[in-house]
Amino acid sequence: MASVMVTAMPFAGHARPIRAVAAELVRRGHDVRAYTGRSYVDGFEAVGARGVPWRVAPDFDERDFAATFPRMRGRKGPRQVLHNLEDLFIGTAPAQTADLLAAHDEQPWDVLAGDPLALGTRFAAERTGSRWATLSPVPAWLPGRDVPPPGLGLRPRAGVVGRIRDTALAGVTRLAMAPLDRAYRRSRSAAGLPSGGGGFPTMWYSPELLVAPGSAGLDYPRADLPRSVRFVGDLTDDGGAAGTSAPLPPWWDDVLHAETPVVHLTQGTANVDPDDLIRPALEALADEDVLVVVGLGHRTDPLPGALPGNVRVAEMLPYDALLPRTSLMITNGGFGGVVQALRHDVPLVVAGGDLDKPEVAARVAWTGAGVDLRTGTPRPAAIRSAYRQVASESSFREAAARLGAELRALGGTRAAADAVEGLLRRP
Fold this sequence. Notes:
single chain; 427 residues; alpha/beta; Rossmann fold; 2 domains; six-stranded parallel sheet; EryCIII-like_C; Glycosyltransferase_28; UDP_glucos_trans
């Protein structure tokens, strides 16, 4: 039995997959502690881990980031990304480090396996000299000579033109990210660490082991992928061991007995203004011969007024029951939901607006498993056209099935636990 500390940022899309890995490690007999926000401690304890809540770190309500981080009030697009990274992720890292060092003083761990955006994981590993792994609930797309700079939502372009484009954009990206590099250095100093430890965007990841969701087939081809990266497929693929399935809504029989295709519509749990995607998609599909199943997420208020007759709505949905019955997903590009859809061979229409979502949308389109709407706020006509294209052309479902087979073969939660145990066995 080993002592394992896992870390998870207190977001639904981060805590759930990391909790699934923690549950698998507990099942194997390890003593697992979980450092996360207070709102997610109970969920980890329900699967047998011991919760370690944020104390020095400024715990926050993911329904109202601005209450704790005022610069995020009313922000979308690039400014939201910048303030997310600088204030929430980099800025809280020294306090996370203090919490983790206190937990290590109480009981040293054998390995630290953490959410890359919980940057205190890296700092605590350096302070304690611990073995550490990145356990990523979000896409881990690293820079490299064969791929465009991450974060711009670009697809590869071959030849001299592509190399010139990528070289120029890499220089521009370095300049744009310079404020984050400075914030990172300040954060390291505040955590009692010397300068170093990489820079944006590699600073989030362990050089020893990066457990990544998705698959090589869902990334661009490259010859320089670090040996530390291990793709494991879907980190929610735990057979229900972590108790993560949402309850069935009262209208579930409509899904079970649907005589028309089921289309799942989701805007995720981060940007939750329904005017961005949900409302235009409902308008786009109102006259289509489909059953539209909407997952609002736990941060979106109920939709007011009458809904089209072909629409069913719930806050959270049981994906393990829904996705096998789904013909197509329309999504804002949250990577966890995209991977789950593809694991069930479901093609996609993706409206990726900001954060990592333009990158997700671009890769889905590049694989042929869906259409990239190239905006997070599409018009109903664009959604309708994309839906009809994906629904009518078999190539999209065939590409999704190809990726689904690859994702299922990678092992999911069990493979992630294997990787963490492998790090324990290294000299």
